[in-house]
Amino acid sequence: MSSPRSSTRLRISEIFHSLQGESTRVGLPTVFVRLTGCPLRCVWCDTEYAFTGGQIRTLDDVLQEVAGHGAHYVCVTGGEPLAQKSCLVLLTALCDAGYSVSLETSGALDVADVDPRVSKIMDLKAPGSGEVSKNRLTNLAHIGLADEIKMVLADEADYLWAREMIATHRLSERCSVLVSPVQGKLDPQDLAAWVLRDRLAVRMQLQMHRIIWGERTGV
Q1: Is there a binding annotation on residue 45?
Q2: Residues 47 and 58: beta-carbon distance below 8 Å
Q3: Spatial separation of the C-alpha atoms in residues 4 and 169, rounded to whole Å
Q4: Is 55 annotated as ligand-binding?
Q5: 20 is in an annotated binding site
Q6: Does residue 37 have a known ligand-binding role?
Q7: Any idea which positions bind substrate (predicted)?
Q8: Quick check: pTM over 0.85?
Q9: Is there a domain that residue 72 lies in?
Q10: Which of 80, 110, 128, 157 has a Cα-to-Cα distance from 87 of 20 to 30 A?
Q11: Residue 89 covered by a domain
Q12: Are 59 and 5 a contacting pair, CB within 8 Å?
């Protein structure tokens, strides 16, 4: 009789070793495990190639490839990784193997069952994304100091929305809050000026991997 782990299958878009380009872990050598599929269609999405395709792989195969890169940090991302039920098994297996694990999730799916050892990097979708109605605000009850909330902003209206969300839900008291501009839509200097003007308790970030390598997969 096979164990749940030995029978676990995942649809994987790519696995690669790079520098973390976002979050408070920015700059750290990290293995990225990108799962295929996403129920959202944010208008500014930069990983549309992960919506479909990919390869069905066993959990043991994924763990073996991750181990081959020799990194301590692992980021499970997508698409929306939690759209695959087996993602929860993968996260626990990575933690059991001794990695420092982060999960990049859209915030549209329930995070309650994510292994507590995982650092959840959860989006709140601003109106400019076209998916603001998909925010699952009940997830905030499962966000702690080891987690992070990220908001990607396309214009000043998005910024004002983010400012209101931070105040209403006291987000900066829950965890680190990250804001970043949609590349090509919002000038980083404008976002920086608003953050400083309002003395907003956030960390502004840019996508370091895109600054270094541009728009390409596997980075």
Answers
A1: yes
A2: no
A3: 38
A4: no
A5: yes
A6: no
A7: 19-21, 34, 77
A8: yes
A9: yes
A10: 128
A11: yes
A12: yes
